[in-house]
Amino acid sequence: MEGLKPLKGQHHVSAITANASQNYHFYTKILGLRLVKKTVNQDDTSMYHLFYADERGNPGTDLTFFEIPRAGHTYYGTNSISTTSLRVPNDAALDYWKSRFEEFGVEYEEVSRATGRATLAFKDFEGQRLELVSDEHNQGVEGGKPWDKSPVPVEHAILGLGPVYLTVEEIEKTAKVLTDVLGYRKKGTYTSEERFEVSIFETAEGGTGAEIHLVERADLPKEKPGRGSVHHVAFRVENQEELMKWVQLLKQLRIPSSGFVERYYFKSLYFREPNGILFELATDGPGFEGDEPFESLGEKLALPPYFEDRRAEIEARIKPLDTKE
Fold first, then answer.
1. For a disulfide at 250, which of 91, 136, 257, 310, Cβ 3.0-4.6 Å?
2. Does the residue 3 lie in any domain?
3. Would you say which domain of life the source belongs to (predicted)?
4. pTM over 0.90
5. Which CATH number goes with the domain that contains 65?
6. Which residues does 245 contact at the CB level (< 8 Å), separation at least 6?
7. Helix, strand, or coil here: 212?
């Protein structure tokens, strides 16, 4: 569509946990992220929606979780967001993180350079597939600003989301949506540790915060999601005016979508690409400080104004989660 600006990179990644308390401990006490918003899933207010990010939840730094207490085991496979990577300042930070993972008993692999950057793959307590990626030689979208009250020293801290890995049955279908619909450009390829060719797509300024790594795996079954799986990935749109242009574009292309969705902390649009992975386009603002001051982000249950009249009902249905410590 004429006048449509390129997507700006990753906005957030949303995953599933079966235990909000353990999830909070892992992502704040071990990974050192800040819980910038403790709220509920706006499509099902009986479950928590937790947002971990840099100091104030700048777009491109959010890793979020829906708590589904009865979520079953994830059976890894194709048509999935198969790894979420997190940016760290440099290669030396990976040595710090290896020591930290040893200290806390976190499952990790050795440092790899298959992508052309130093990376450190690891898993959380539910098998969530994660990776630290070094920004040592990175150029492109800037990272966030780590919270200075984090248990992780700022010089080693996570800066935001890195490349998002997609594993699909039919690569050409997803690649076509990335390039022909979303405006990504193919940057190149590399061979993964498992000896499969991975295609890199980038948008806007490029770099670790604006890449999608896409691999075809016809040898795998379709993923059966559960705790430790990723629900969707969101990409950055500058503002609501731009988002409405994307709504119109998808209509013109006859791609089924949610249309405009009000999320209060940002505005959204959802659709599935041909292999079934859920994509979201989300605005950079308004952000997380409209209902809480910077100093106490994430300490209380925050509800968008349109849910405030149901606060008593909502609080009665969810298990208290202490996030003030």
1. 257
2. no
3. Bacteria
4. yes
5. 3.10.180.10
6. 1, 3, 4
7. strand
